[in-house]
Amino acid sequence: MAATSLLRLCAAAALALLLLVGAAPLTEAYDPLDPTGNITIKWDITQWTADGYVAVVSINNYQKYRHIQAPGWHLGWAWTKKEVIWGMMGAQTIEQGDCSQFKGNIPHCCRRDPTTVDLLPGAPNGMQVGNCCKGGVLNSWVQDPVNAVASFQITVGRSGTTNRTVKAPKNFTLKAPGPGYTCGAAQKVKPPTKFISLDGRRTTQAHVTWDVICTYSQFVAQRGPACCVALSSFYNETIVDCPKCSCGCQNNITNPGSCVEVNSPYLASVVNGPGKGSSTPLVRCSPHMCPIKVHWHVKANYRDYWRVKITISNWNYRMNYSQWNLVVQHPNFDNVTTIFSFNYKALNPYGVINDTAMLWGLKYYNDLLMVAGPDGNVQSELLFRKDPSTFTFEKGWGFPRRIYFNGESCVMPQPDLYPWLPSSSPRLTKTAFLALAIVACATVAFLYNHLVLDKYCGKS
């Protein structure tokens, strides 16, 4: 009895350990597909003033495939002294705070913990600086490095006016626009940033430069899945759809109005109503309830090549996904030859092994994934060359190991549900057929002789 209890205790401990190990990747900011990816905030003091300084603040997205989409980033911090913001260009604080102690010249913000947002496109020229006014949207570094940077200028008062007396802000926060990013302390950079003039003939240097590193964690973001994967193939009639309740379940009692039926008479009013453009998903009713569905279809098999069709469908009635991207893990990406209507970049997270690809739309063609409806999908086909040493359609090899949409891991079907090759008799080679024919003839001859001998021996 004691031995049985001990075995049960060990089994429970082992199960708990497995669950912890399985959950570990989500609890860390480390991304195995982008181990050095981060967002770096650079604070460059370029000019001293009578009671403070002028600084250029840059937000650099060094993440390969994760970007910040509308409604954009929110950058916050806490002052270490009694600083105020006299003015800003290229951005603004969302609250002014209590500036009642000031007479005449009123600061832009008097809060001890200001939060800034980017200006919208089309802001007046007098309020713009370089790399500003994108509505807070930051593209990923691989996808669009030119638009992976945001900048604004800030004039700070009631602070130090020399390298020794000025203090860096603390407790930086970056929201995109929700949680997910954790920022470290500001670190002084030596030598400070150098700026090159537009004509390239003069270089100036910041008086002080601080760097703040922010990393992303899905565990900190506290987000549930937002996408799922369906699988199908030409050699099997079965279509393995997204797992049920991948991104939530339909529940009209506890969560009414969470989804909309396609044939609902209220669909037009709901979609075109006040909630249009909201970051809260309003999805088409489905068993999986995901805003994004990715369909991987093994389309054709040739002698030296095989072909895959990828369809990305937007089931969200409230959001256009601009500058979307897809990261796919499959062992045959080392032999990809042609990708139609998508951009492609090998990420190579494991050095020389190429099994991870980043795909995104062509500019002005399909880089905007429209809201749910007839135009709410983008498609492409991938042509792979066969490697005789590894290629097979058996045991689900033709399907991806993992898919990410906009940096978020999509829910995959269970491996035992993948469309397998159909059960059929194997084709025989000429040698095997001849061998079987000889065995069959020998068996017939043996039985015939045996029956004849029994017949005559029985009579004698």
Please, could you describe this protein's structure?
This protein is an alpha+beta fold. It has two domains: about 40-220, Immunoglobulin-like (Sandwich); about 225-265 and about 275-415, Immunoglobulin-like (Sandwich). The protein has four helices and 28 strands. It has helices spanning about 1-25, 220, 265-270, 430-460; strands at about 40-50, 50-60, 75-80, 85-90, 90-95, 115-120, 150-155, 170-175, 180-185, 185-190, 195, 205, 210-215, 225-235, 235-240, 260, 285, 290-300, 305-315, 320, 325-330, 335-340, 340-345, 355-360, 370, 375-385, 400-405, 410. The strands form seven sheets. Strands 1, 2, 4, 7, 9, 10 and 13 form a seven-stranded antiparallel beta sheet that branches. The longest helix has 30 residues, at about 430-460. The radius of gyration is 31 Å and the shape is elongated. Residues about 10-30, about 425-435 and about 455-460 have low confidence and may be disordered. It comes from Triticum urartu. One of its GO terms (biological process) is plant-type cell wall cellulose biosynthetic process. Belongs to the COBRA family. Keywords: Glycoprotein, Membrane, Signal, Transmembrane, Transmembrane helix. InterPro entries: COB_C (IPR056900), COBRA_pln (IPR006918).
Walk me through the topology.
Layout: H1 2-27, E1 39-48, E2 52-61, E3 74-78, E4 84-89, E5 91-93, E6 115-118, E7 149-157, E8 170-175, E9 181-183, E10 187-188, E11 194-196, E12 203-205, E13 208-216, H2 218-221, E14 227-233, E15 236-240, E16 259-260, H3 267-271, E17 283-284, E18 292-301, E19 305-314, E20 321-322, E21 325-329, E22 336-340, E23 342-346, E24 356-361, E25 368-369, E26 377-385, E27 402-405, E28 408-409, H4 430-459
Signal peptide: 1-29
Domain COBRA C-terminal: 227-414
Pfam families: COB_C (PF25079), COBRA (PF04833)
